[in-house]
Design goal:
Layout: H1 7-16, E1 19-24, H2 28-37, E2 47-51, H3 61-66, E3 73-75, E4 79-81, E5 87-89, E6 94-99, E7 102-107, H4 117-128, E8 132-136, H5 145-153, E9 157-161, H6 170-174, E10 182-184, H7 189-198, H8 206-223, H9 232-246, H10 251-260, H11 262-272, H12 283-303, H13 319-329, H14 383-387
Parallel strand pairs: 1-2, 1-8, 2-5, 3-5, 8-9, 9-10
Antiparallel strand pairs: 4-7, 6-7
């Protein structure tokens, strides 16, 4: 597999490759031993382990894992090329990053958590995209919670050890439930990984393939969402994640179950949809917008005493909408719009969802007639105007 990452071609191939990253802390040695012991010798992906260890004491993690693993165990010294069916152990007091199919170590700052699961997951998500599977095991603290967010943003999969049975539940419990694809007891995690990584590599064949195609067709008929242009490996991997989470072993059985379970159907759709978003996601576009387009629109609105309204199509959790708002309020070399505008109220044309971001997108309502209030964006509105609602009542 190492050759797959050489040069530009290798970088493209890394997107379709798979990687498993396991993070743990207190109680992690026993947990790691049990997970690694349950994996086959031909496991078709590299496994990178980031275990918090006391740097003042020599580590015997690799020797302990080696006695129980069917795969070779490698300690990363300074740099190592990733290989399938190999377990890589990161030493204590080192930070590890992934780039171009290689693990690279660097010293940790004094007092810094090392190896950092967050840093490892963030760089893994950047390098492998939807091919990353993150596993958070027992441990104290919250290392891995930020990295799990990056994994999900890249389309990857997040598995946590069941906090109810974990020796130290803080680390798995710190992962937001909205990011978790599967929660499993310790002795089941190896099976979950095999189901996800091994079964998700090719497109389903035979009856499973027919059931898979029928499921996608049913989703398109029911929701109007066509996943035909998505990478099939990504869809299969996420579908397998929901099947594992709900205890279904066949696509046909799972498809029948979601017909009667609207909540699980919604979870599946949410898992399949790629919600890649961040503030100022495309810097060049926003740079042109702020330097060229917005100053012209703002000047024109001021000259003609008009409102300036900006829409973001498909704002996901709001980063794009607020990026536009920030660009409008702080254009380069211009008086900020906030000095002359009345208010900024992002609204949504979609029905409010149950997500934690939904409340910030709901337009204000009149306390008297309950009709939606119109945002006032005129220059320095009077007190009477500011207190007047759409219905005309004060």
């Amino acid at each position: 597999m190492a050759e797959a990452y050489d040069g530009i071609v290798g970088k493209r191939r890394a997107i379709d490759a798979q990687l498993v990253v396991i993070g743990s802390s207190a109680g992690g040695i026993e947990a790691l031993t049990r997970v690694i012991a349950s994996l086959p010798a031909d496991f078709p992906a590299p496994i990178v382990i980031a275990q918090h260890l006391d740097p003042r004491r020599p580590s015997h993690l690799s020797e302990i894992l080696g006695r129980h693993s069917a795969m070779p165990i490698r300690i990363v010294e300074s740099e190592a090329a990733l290989q399938d069916s190999t377990v890589f152990v990161v030493p204590s007091n080192k930070l590890v990053e992934i780039a171009d199919g290689h693990l690279r170590l660097r010293p940790a700052a004094p007092g810094q958590v090392s190896p950092s699961v967050d840093l490892l997951l963030e760089t893994a998500a950047e390098a492998f995209g939807a091919g990353v599977t993150a596993v958070i095991l027992t441990g104290s603290g919250s290392d891995g919670s930020a990295g799990a967010w990056h994994v999900k943003q890249a389309g990857g999969t997040v598995i946590i050890e069941n906090p109810a049975t974990a020796l130290f539940p803080s680390m798995p419990r710190s992962i937001s439930p909205s990011l978790v694809d599967a929660t499993a007891d310790l002795d089941s995690i190896g099976t979950v990984l095999v189901d996800l990584v091994v079964a998700a590599r090719p497109d389903p064949d035979g009856p499973e393939g027919l059931a898979f195609s029928a499921l996608l067709a049913r989703i398109r008929e029911r929701s109007g969402i066509d996943f035909g242009s998505y990478k099939s490996a990504t869809i299969v991997r996420r579908l397998r994640g929901r099947m594992v989470a709900t205890g279904h072993t066949s696509v046909a059985d799972y498809a029948r179950s979601i017909e009667a379970d609207g909540e699980e159907y919604a979870r599946l759709i949410s898992s399949l949809l790629i919600k890649v978003t961040e503030f100022f996601r495309d810097p060049k576009v926003f740079e042109y917008l702020r330097e060229k387009t917005l100053p012209m629109l703002i000047d024109e609105a001021r000259v003609h005493d008009r409102q300036l309204r900006v829409w973001s199509a498909g704002c996901s959790t709001g980063e794009e909408a607020y990026s536009l708002a920030i660009s409008v309020l702080r254009p380069p070399g211009r008086t900020p719009m906030s000095s002359t505008s009345g208010s900024l109220r992002p609204t949504s044309t979609r029905p409010p969802s149950r997500s934690r971001d939904a409340a910030s997108t709901r337009p204000p309502r009149c306390g008297t007639c309950r009709r939606t209030s119109a945002p006032d964006t005129s220059a320095r509105p009077s007190m009477a105007t500011r207190s007047r609602n759409r219905c005309g009542r004060r």
